[in-house]
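Quick start: read one record
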Amino acid sequence: MAATSGTDEQVSGELVSVAHALSLPAESYGNDLISSVDPQFLKLTKVDDQIYSEFRKNFETLRIDVLDPEELKSESAKEKWRPFCLKFNGIVEDFNYGTLLRLDCSQGYTEENTIFAPRIQFFAIEIARNREGYNKAVYISVQDKEGEKGVNNGGEKGADNGEEENTKNRGEKGADSGEEKKEGINREDKTDKGGKKEKEADKEINKSGEKAM
């Protein structure tokens, strides 16, 4: 029951992130988002299923992890993309607005790694990248790095705690040594006092003896 509750909380957290993501413009979708939210939870539009189905029906063999600009911008490519895009006129808001699309999904938004594309083309490719696991690699890579960072921070904290413990132990040891030294001095004082008393007693005996004589 506890395990199920933990899973529900994780999914709930992912969906909150997704809700935030959907409020952002299309060009904001990139490594920052897919590195913090598992791509399998991302729903970019209300018709993701339809977009993906139509996309793979028309572009069955198109490579999407690293895009070839010619597959998007050449005259022959435009002829193939045009009817696909027009199918979503009135279905996807601003379907033909221009936005930035990453060529290599393992890289971020840079001048060299982006191309200007219609919004529906952007959605089609990024939805496919999510569903086919290409964007998952970025998410896993970042999560692994975060995990390593946490482990390193934990090690540093442990070292600090160990140093504090050593300092504490040294302090206790010094206190113990001081106590032992003090006790030794006290014992010596007592011994000296005892010796003096014995000498004084001997003197008294000697005096008494002399008077008796």
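Helices lie at 2-22, 31-34, 48-58, 70-73, 75-86, 119-131, 136-212.
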